[in-house]
Amino acid sequence: MSSSLVATIQPQGRRWHSIASKPPGPAAPKPSRSISKRESSTTINFSSAPGPNTSNPIPGPIRQDNLFHPFSQSPSPEIRRRAAFIKQHAYCPHSSHRPTRAPSSPNDPESHKSTTPSAQPPAHVKYECPDCGIPTYCCEEHWMDDYESHLEICDTLRQINEDDHDLRSSRSFGEFDYPAGQMEELLVNMTNWDTFLYTREFNAVNDMRAMRQVTRLLTYPVTVGSVLHELSPYSVRSGGRLTNEGLKSMSALRYTLHPPRTGAGSDIKGLRPSPPPVRIFILGARAESSLPRNVWTQLSYMFPRVTFHIHLIGPESMLNRDSEYPLPERTPANPFGAVTEDRFSHDMKISTYVEYYHTLHEAQAFVPYDPYFDCFVLFHPGLGHPASSAEWASTVPQLLETKCPVLVTGYSEWDMQRDIQWVRDTVGGEMDLLLEPGENRFRSLRWDLNDLDPQDVSSGNWGVWGFRGKRYETTRKDEGGGGTVAL
């Protein structure tokens, strides 16, 4: 999402952000197969896709009263190129075709395809459903034959269609006008999106489509803050999902994130030593690295007494951003070519590394690690996905060595359970579960489409869980007495 979407409008009056009174949106689809690498349109380059057919006239500007358009006939050239990309790469899910790959989950349409010699060869999608406007089948006959199955996600696909056109319409996006810091006495309520937006004094969001658009961006910083904050909705109480080991790790971080007042002032008598910034390492960064920086600063407003240093690490962390920040030359002073941004906020700095984390770890680029100041975050890493698990094989043991908490998000319950099982199989019993897997209260309310498989719809940061390297409590006895030491 480009930062140009942020509207410069005057704040509206404060009203309740409730969505309970809104008519229900399209039903959520059944959990589909999860994907490890961001295969959605946010990270795919369409420059190689064939252009649309321009023989038919294209409608004029997109209006709010007419957001639905078939992808191939969209007024937006980007969406028409996206339709061409889908038709070029996605395969028909009808059961009469032979499978094109191994199924990745029980709900994967590939698991229902025929393997008999008489089965039809795989075919790319060509037919656009008239109800959702997205290419889903190779022909109208297969679409009609599989119509009941398609109905499970048709409403959600239509919602995706309209949301994509809404972003390219001419309306004013007041939901992207974010508030600055507020008084510390005004506590943030993290029960759900409604209470968070209201207590953070966002502009009133009274439309479900606007709510989906704003949560698609805010889900990244707010997900991190909702777990680390002292008013977190995740606790050790029954159903709170936070484990005893998780309480230990979160208490250490919260001790740093919520320090007592020091009496610092602007004069000489008010000089006080400043603690180092809290470091958040985001590994495998992709779409989150291109977020507008005023989105990330919302995290610092949740913790007004500390500073943050966010490290975006991954080979795709600067994807499609070369024109914005050309990669610097690697020098002895900057051996990994880090791109550092420190002028957008006084309380936050962002450094981007186009490198694998295990390379930086072996070079000891970030030592020493401190559980009171450091935290790792993995957004949709696909730890257990066959296509990406090998890339994490050397990284996960290194994360356990730091003894710092690791927060992980997933597209679905199946995606998270697969990641947890892979971590357990990889490191054995050297892992402590900090946060039990479950639905993220601050997941994206907007559904995303996988352009390589239109049957696969997912929600950003749908679930969240956490782990840490196991710590052993040992008792040491000597002449001077005894005590418990955590190793």
TrEMBL record:
Polar residues compositional bias, start-end: 1-11, 41-57, 102-118
GO cellular component: mitochondrion
Domain Mitochondrial splicing suppressor 51 zinc-finger: 91-167
A Pfam family per the record: zf-Mss51
Superkingdom, taxonomy of origin: Eukaryota
Residue numbers spanned by region Disordered: 1-75, 92-124
Ranges in coiled-coil conformation: none
Mitochondrial splicing suppressor 51-like C-terminal domain segment(s): 271-450
Gene Ontology biological process terms, A to Z: mitochondrial respiratory chain complex IV assembly
Name this protein carries in UniProt: Mss51p
Organism expressing this protein natively: Tothia fuscella
